[in-house]
Design brief:
The complex is a heterodimer. Chain A has 19 helices and 13 strands. Chain A is α/β, with parallel strands linked by helices. Chain B is mainly alpha-helical. The chains are: A alpha/beta, B mainly alpha. Chain B: It holds the Pfam family BPD_transp_1.
C-alpha cells in the first residue's frame, strides 16, 4: 500500500484572502464609526420621578473599597428597603487605584453594570463632557431643598462647570448630589505633644520635630506620599493652599506661572525639606491605610488623613494605643488643619450620579433613592451610621457630632474647603502632579524642578486640545 | 478499494474534491468543504479575538479617536507615530524598559542555568528539587507582587528585619530611584528563573552521555568538558528561553503596577505601564493604539534578528 507523500495546505485563493482582509478592515472602521453620533453632553433626567417598578430590583453603586462604601450598603439596605421593599442595594467596590478606570471603561463601552456611579468631585467634568451621567438640574429644582446645604458642597459634588469662585452658581447645571462629605483631619498624640493641637502649620512642624527627637522610634509626621490615586498631589495642594498658593487661574486656563509662583515654591520647599525629614523611612509610598497603620501602631506623633477613613483608628483590635476606644481616645486627638497664610483645607468626599446607560426603570429608582437620601432625617441617620452628610442641619445635629470624635472637625472645616480642577483633563493633570510630587518627596527630582515640570506638563495638557496626534503623551 | 495512485498526488486538495463522499454524507459536502467546516470555528475565534482587534487598533492608531469622548475619529495619519517617536517621555520609559529587560533576563539566565547545571549533576531528589524550584513560576504575578511588597516594606518588611538583625541599616527598596528598579528585577528574577532553569535542564539532560565518557577517557578537566561539550550543546536551547523571557519582560506591567506604581516619580514606569496611562488616563485611544502597534513592531523586528542569529548558529 502506498501512502500520501505529504498533506497539502488547503489553498485559499489570494483574491479571497484579500477580500477577507478588506472586509475585516471595513468592519473595523464601521465598528469604530458607531460612535459617530454619540452624545457629547449629558442627557437630561426627568424633573418628576417616573413611576417606580413593583418588581424586584437591584440598584447598583460603584465606589472604591473603603469603610464608607460598606457602611452605605448596610445602611441603605436597612433603611431604604423600609420604603421600597422590592429594592436591594448593592455597592460594588474596586481598589482605589482602579476606581476611575473601572467607571470610565464602562462608560466608554456605553454600557454599565452600575446605576449610581460615585464620582470624585473632579471626575464630573470628564463624565459630563462625554455624556456619561444624567443632567439632574430639573430634578433637583423640583425635589431637593437646596437651601438646606452649604452651597459650596452642593456645587462641589454636582455642579459643572466648576464652582470656580468657591460659591455655587445658581444658573449652572447639576449632575450629582452629595453622598459623603470629607476633608483632612489632623490626628495628634495627646500623650506625646499635649492636649492643645498646634494652631499654625509652622508650629505644627516644630512640635512634630520636637516630638520625634524626644521619642525615638516615633516619627514626627505621617501623611500621603504615594504616586497612585491623588495621594501625593492632595498633600502638596493642601500645603500650597495654606501658604497662599493657587493651583491655576481657572478663567485663563493658566497653570504655568501660577502653581509654580513664589508661594507654590515655598509650599514645595516646606513639604520636601521640612515635612519629609520628619516622616518614617520608606514612607514615600504611603496612602490612607499606611498612615492609619502608623498611627494605630503608635509610630507617628502627628498624622493627616481623610476623616471618612479615620474610624478604623478607634478599633482596639487594630491598635496598640489602647484596649478600649476610650483608652485610644486618651492618646489620640483630632483637630482641623492648622492654618498659615490662609486656612484652606482640601475638599474630599464624593457625589452620587445617575449612569446614562442604565435602564429607565433603574434610572427612576436611582432618582428616587437620591431624593430619599437627601431628606433631613435620613441624613441624620446616615451620620449616625458612620457617614459624613452634607446637609447643614445634619452636620450640626447631635447624631453626627456625637458619632465620631472627628466629626466636629468636619463641621468646622466646611467653610474652609478648596477643591482641585474639575475639568475633563483631570485624570492626566492629577497623574502629572502625583508623579512629580512623589518624585520630589523621594529624592528622584529636585523640588523646584518637580514644581516647574508640573506647571509645564499640566499647561501642555490644557493647551493640547487642538493638537494633531500624540494626545496623552 | 480506491485507486492508491490518487492518494500520492502532490495536489491533494484537488484530488480530494473528486473523492466520492463517504456513505451517509451529503453529495455536496466534499473533503475540502468538510475541512473548511472543521477549522472555521477556530478560525472565526482567531479572527474575532486577535486579528480583528489588531486591525482595529491599527486603524485607530492613525486617528485621534477617544473611547470615552466618542464623536468621529479624525485621521491624523502618522501624527501619533511621530509624536510617540519624538517624545522625551517615551524615550525615558524605553530606557527604563531596556535596563529592566537586560538586567532581569541576564540575571535569570545566569541563575537559571547555574541551578539547572547543579540539579543535572544530582542523581537523587532531582525531580523533587525541580518541582520545588518551579513553584514561583506557577503563582500569579499579582500575588507575587503583593507579598513582595510586604516583604520589601521599609518599616515592617521581613527583608529589612533580616538586614537589621545582621546589623545593617534599613533600605528603602521601593521608594528610592536607585533601588526600586533593582527590586523589580529581583522580584521578576525570583519568579521567572525557574523557567530558564527548566529549559536549560531539558537541554542538559539531552546531552549524550558518551561525549562526557569520551572526555573522561581523555582526562579532560571539568571546565574543559563544560566549555566544549555542555555549553555549546545547551546554548541554542538557552537562547530560545532568553528570547521568550525577553519578550515577556519587555511587556512587563503587573509587577510595576503592584510594587511601585511606576515610582518614585516615573523612574520605574515601563513602556507597557506608560501605554496603560495613555490609554486610560484621559482615554487617548488613538495614541495608545499607535504606541501598542509600535511596541509590537519592535518585538517582531528584534525577534526576527534574533531568530536569524539562532539559525546561523545552528548552521555553524
Amino acid at each position: 500500500m502506498r501512502y500520501p507523500k505529504r498533506i497539502g495546505r488547503l489553498s485559499v485563493p489570494r483574491r479571497t484572502a484579500h477580500l477577507a482582509t478588506a472586509a475585516l478592515l471595513v468592519a473595523a472602521m464601521a465598528a469604530c464609526g458607531q460612535d459617530d453620533g454619540a452624545n457629547s453632553s449629558a442627557p437630561k433626567a426627568p424633573a418628576t420621578i417616573p413611576e417606580l417598578t413593583k418588581d424586584p430590583l437591584t440598584l447598583s453603586f460603584i465606589w472604591f473599597d473603603w469603610p464608607p462604601a460598606h457602611a452605605l450598603e448596610t445602611f441603605a439596605n436597612a433603611e431604604y428597603t423600609k420604603e421600597r421593599p422590592n429594592v436591594t442595594i448593592k455597592v460594588n467596590t474596586v481598589p482605589n487605584a482602579n476606581w476611575h478606570d473601572a467607571m470610565f471603561t464602562q462608560f466608554a463601552a456605553h454600557k454599565t453594570d452600575f446605576d449610581i456611579p460615585v464620582l470624585d468631585s473632579q471626575h464630573i467634568g470628564e463624565a459630563v463632557t462625554n455624556g456619561n451621567i444624567l443632567d439632574i438640574t430639573d430634578f433637583v429644582k423640583k425635589n431637593i431643598d437646596v437651601k438646606a446645604y452649604n452651597p459650596y458642597l452642593l456645587a462641589a459634588y454636582g455642579q459643572f462647570p466648576q464652582a470656580e469662585t468657591g460659591k455655587r452658581d445658581e444658573n449652572a447645571s447639576l449632575y450629582g448630589l452629595p453622598l459623603l462629605g470629607d476633608t483632612w483631619t489632623m490626628i495628634y498624640r495627646k500623650d506625646l505633644i499635649g492636649d492643645t493641637p498646634p494652631k499654625t502649620w509652622d508650629e505644627m512642624i516644630s512640635v512634630a520635630e520636637k516630638c520625634q527627637a524626644d521619642n525615638p522610634g516615633v516619627s514626627g509626621l505621617a501623611f500621603h506620599q504615594a504616586n497612585g490615586s491623588d495621594a501625593a498631589a492632595v498633600t502638596y495642594n493642601t500645603v500650597n493652599g495654606l501658604y497662599g498658593g493657587n493651583l491655576w487661574d481657572a478663567k485663563a486656563r493658566k497653570i504655568e506661572g501660577v502653581i509654580n509662583d513664589a508661594a507654590g515654591q515655598e509650599a514645595m520647599d516646606i513639604l520636601v525639606n521640612k515635612m519629609k525629614p520628619l516622616t518614617a523611612k520608606g514612607s514615600g509610598n504611603w496612602f490612607i491605610d499606611e498612615v492609619n497603620a502608623a498611627v494605630a501602631q503608635g509610630k507617628a506623633c502627628i498624622a493627616f488623613n481623610w476623616i471618612a477613613a479615620s474610624g478604623a483608628l478607634l478599633d482596639p483590635k487594630q491598635s496598640t494605643l489602647g484596649s478600649t476606644k476610650e483608652e485610644i481616645l486618651d492618646k489620640l486627638g483630632f483637630a482641623p488643619l492648622p492654618s498659615q497664610k490662609t486656612n484652606l483645607v482640601p475638599l474630599g468626599g464624593m457625589g452620587m450620579h445617575v449612569s446614562a446607560y442604565s435602564s429607565k426603570e433603574k434610572q427612576a429608582e436611582a432618582l428616587n433613592f437620591m431624593k430619599w437620601f437627601e431628606q433631613a432625617d435620613i441624613q441624620k441617620k446616615w451620620a449616625a451610621a458612620g457617614g459624613v452628610p452634607a446637609r447643614t442641619d445634619a452636620l450640626e445635629s447631635p447624631e453626627f457630632l456625637n458619632a465620631g470624635p472627628f466629626n466636629k472637625v468636619y463641621t468646622e472645616s466646611v467653610p474652609r474647603m478648596r477643591d482641585m480642577w474639575n475639568v475633563p483633563e483631570y485624570a492626566r493633570l492629577i497623574d502629572i502632579e502625583n508623579t512629580n510630587v512623589n518624585a520630589a518627596l523621594n529624592g528622584a527630582k529636585a523640588p523646584k524642578d518637580a514644581l516647574n515640570d508640573i506647571a509645564k506638563e499640566q499647561q501642555s495638557v490644557l493647551d493640547s486640545s487642538g493638537r494633531k496626534g500624540g494626545g496623552g503623551l | 478499494m480506491s485507486d492508491p495512485v490518487s492518494l500520492t498526488t502532490d495536489r491533494p486538495g484537488q484530488v480530494a474534491s473528486t473523492t466520492p463522499p463517504a456513505p451517509g454524507r451529503s453529495r455536496h459536502l466534499s473533503d475540502r468543504w468538510l475541512a473548511v467546516l472543521f477549522i472555521s470555528p477556530a478560525l472565526l475565534l482567531l479572527l474575532a479575538m486577535s486579528v480583528f482587534p489588531l486591525l482595529w487598533a491599527l486603524y485607530l492608531s492613525f486617528t485621534d479617536y477617544s473611547a470615552t469622548r466618542g464623536g468621529p475619529a479624525t485621521f491624523v495619519w502618522f501624527g501619533n507615530y511621530t509624536a510617540i517617536l519624538a517624545s522625551a517621555q517615551v524615550h525615558l520609559r524605553a530606557l527604563t524598559t531596556l535596563i529592566y529587560v537586560v538586567g532581569a533576563v541576564a540575571l535569570q539566565t545566569v541563575l537559571g542555568f547555574s541551578i539547572a547545571y547543579l540539579i543535572s549533576r544530582r542523581t537523587h531528589g532531582r525531580g523533587l528539587l525541580t518541582t520545588l524550584f518551579l513553584v514561583p513560576m506557577m503563582l500569579s504575578p499579582v500575588v507575587v507582587g503583593l507579598f513582595w511588597r510586604f516583604m520589601l516594606d521599609a518599616q515592617f518588611g521581613v527583608i529589612n528585619s533580616m538586614l537589621g538583625s545582621l546589623g545593617l541599616g534599613q533600605v528603602e527598596w521601593l521608594t528610592r530611584q536607585q533601588t526600586a528598579l533593582f527590586s523589580l528585577i529581583v522580584v521578576d528574577t525570583w519568579q521567572w528563573t525557574p523557567f530558564i532553569m527548566l529549559i536549560a535542564l531539558a537541554g542538559l539532560t539531552a546531552v549524550p552521555k558518551y561525549l562526557y565518557e569520551a572526555a573522561s577517557i581523555d582526562r579532560a578537566s571539568e571546565w574543559f568538558r563544560f566549555r566544549t561539550i555542555t555549553l555549546p550543546l545547551v546554548w541554542p536551547l538557552l537562547l530560545i528561553a532568553v528570547l521568550f523571557r525577553a519578550i515577556e519582560a519587555f511587556r512587563l506591567f503587573d509587577l510595576v503596577y503592584i510594587l511601585t506604581s511606576g515610582g518614585p516619580g516615573v523612574s520605574t514606569e515601563t513602556l507597557s505601564f506608560h501605554v496603560y496611562k495613555v490609554a486610560f488616563l484621559g482615554f487617548n485611544t488613538g495614541t495608545a493604539s499607535a504606541y501598542g502597534i509600535l511596541m509590537v513592531l519592535i518585538v517582531i523586528v528584534l525577534t526576527q534578528l534574533y531568530l536569524r542569529y539562532l539559525n546561523k548558529l545552528k548552521e555553524d
